[in-house]
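Question thread 4412

I'm putting together a teaching handout and wanted feedback from people who do this every day. The idea is simple: show students a protein as raw sequence, then show them the structure tokens that encode its fold, then repeat with a second protein so they can compare. Below is the first pair exactly as I plan to print it.
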Amino acid sequence: MRTRVQAAAAGLAVILALTACGTSPGEDSGNDGSKTSNTADISEGVQPDEAAVKLLPQSYKDKGEITVAMDLHYPPTTFLADDNSTPIGLNPDMARLIAKKLGLKLKFENTAFDTIIPGIDGGRYDFTATTMSPTAERLQVLDMIDYFNGGLSLAVSAGNPLNISNDDMCGRNIAVTKGSNAQLKHLPNVSNWTCTEKGKPAINGVTLPNVQEALTQLHSKRVDGVLYDSASLVWAADQQPNTFTILTPQVDTRSDHVVAVALKKGSPLTPALQAAVQSVLDSPEYKKSLETWGLEAGAITEAKLN
């Protein structure tokens, strides 16, 4: 019983570290407060982009509002501030800027990652900016517009006692999040070309609802590693020092890691949204957001429609 209580306490500490207190990588806690307490709206003062507004369907102009769906459990790209109500991170910044470029008010809907696509397809949400990568399956039902280029890393227990490497996870229990590209594409791909094609046991993917749960299970040694977005893992390791080791370099998955804004395939909103995203990519606010969340290396310049 004592062991279970200690494991639960450790898990709670990890979750709190991911979602609340702490500073970002390289930030001194003596500065102007934690980034997780900063609820300032990056789009404050940003003016509508006339070219994007001209492309906006009349129904949206009449409504004056646009709805974005996000799973707010993935720092530093998509999560809640210390007040537990304000969405912060790169993706909320992008959504706010896109709405301003379109001259619309923004409504956030916090929902599980694997429910976002059905919600968009069913008309409950207008779009998502939630670190979602284009895949052949998603592009059957979504229009997707690039806005960032990330990567995947492997988190292991502090000091890597199992001596796991990016090139040899064979037979290991590696956690991925439900509905993510890591689950659907990257981990199976890595397992095939680093393990099964060489006659080694496949990687055992353990699908969990979110990265907090994955890191909690890693800390309690129920999984051997966590394959997830590099920026989020670095953030987690910084919030909880000496708990995880992030292996470098990033995992080679033999595919790119571009992420995209998504909306219903063939939507009349697509041209306006693409113009708005391009306007954001050209803006100083885009660079400011990337710098705030330590994601400068992921900057792109073209809002490509996949």
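The second pair follows. I'd like the answer to focus on this one:
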Amino acid sequence: MPGPPVVDYRATSARPGWDTLPAALQHALAVALGTEIAEAGAVVGSGFTGGFAAPVRLADGRELFVKAAPDTLHAYGAYQREAEIVPQLPDVIRVPRIVATATTETEDTKWFAVASELIDGRMPSSPWTTEDFAAASTSCEVIAEALTPAPLTGLDAFVDDIANGWPIDLPERIRSGDRPLPTGFQPWLPGVLQELSDLIALYPEALAGDTALHNDLRPDNLLIDRSGTCWTVDWNWLALGPRWLDWASLLPIAQYDGIDTQAAIRSSPLTADVPADHLDCGAALIAAYMLDDLDTPPPPGCTPELRRHQRLYAWTFLDWLALRRGWPA
């Protein structure tokens, strides 16, 4: 049986260097920071976009992390959204704090930059260790407690986002022949498409909630610092949903790396009392999302590694469901 692709989340992006950013933006950021940027480090390799992202050292000795993008890239709006959200998060949540933002316009292009705290941290180990999994789990518990009910206003309900654009009908369309069966997956996938459809149909009840979700937790959005504390980054996809969903979205990849996630589910305060079908609904929905558009070019501004990430996640979420539901029969 084939397996999923190997994805090195430290090397999935294609980012420009500091010297390629408009001089006007560099100047605007220096003004916002109150001092010049003395040196920019190497851009990070994580993420799937072409936005600038790198550590910088300021003339006054401070070290920060800067992200910047033109309005021609998806990252432009994502960086703006994160700059709006992070200052509203409770202090108990470990997230790099925003230090300054800057905007400028060159010819017909708008630019946005955001500077935040620089965290001396790393992604979870690959494969995940029990220590890193525990750190990420603790972080998710803290986030869920602090964001239930959501202290932020104006967030959309996740179930509404699903209804208005997620490929909830993909398993049924594959069954009917309207969409091709994605290649390279588990041979038992055709036999569970009906059950996937049935699980996804539970989403209006299963995925309702009043917790503000990060809604995009994955290995490259987590940083483990030297003390073993887990920080979360890239807060730009928030939505209202069940308090367990952020943590549950990490479980399939952790299980793939050898973590006993079924035992963790039974002991976690986030999931101990959650109906099994609700957890499986979330996994089925994400599996369908990741199976969609696999053989098409990535969206403008995203790297081809995005599709490899989708394949890895679709595979691991399906495997996670297989363990829980006894697939194949």
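Top answer:
Good format. For the second protein you could add a caption like this: The mean pLDDT is 96. The first helix runs from residue 23 to 33.
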